[in-house]
Design brief:
By secondary structure, this protein is of the alpha+beta class. It has a four-stranded antiparallel beta sheet with strand order 1-2-3-4, with no helix packed on it. A three-stranded mixed beta sheet has the order 5-8-9. A hairpin with a 6-residue loop joins strand 8 and strand 9. Helix 2 packs across helix 3. The protein starts with a strand and ends in a 5-residue tail after the last strand.
Length: 130
Amino acid sequence: MGRRNGWQRGWAAGGLVNIRGEVSLVIKQTLEEWRNEAIERFGESAREWAFQCPKCGNVQTALDFVEKSVMGLNDAANAVYQECIGRHVEGDGCNWAAYGLFGTFGKGRIVIAPDDGREVEVFDFATEQK
C-alpha cells in the first residue's frame, strides 16, 4: 500500500490507518453521496455549504470567499472545501490546504471522483451552518 501524507491508503474498521497503525475515522464517500449530504445539511445552494478547516477550525462558506476576497463564486465554490480562507484573506483563518503535504490530518473526508475513481481529500462539513 502506498503512503501519502503519512497515511496509508488502507482502511480498517471504516477508518484511515496512519503509519503508526492508528485509525482515524475518516468518512469515504462518492461525490454523489457527499453532495447529497451537503444538501441535507445546508440546502441546495452550494454557496452556503459550510466547511471547517482541520488546522485552525475556521468555519467558512463560498460566500465568505466572495465577500472577503476578489474571488468569483465559481472559484470560491471550488476552494471552500479544500483551502482555508486565510490563503486568500490576510488575518482570517490560516493558509491550510487539504491537497498539501499533510492533507486534513485525518479530520476531513475522502471523496471519490466519479470519472476516474480518484480519491480527493477535502475539509469536513462544519457542524453548524454559519
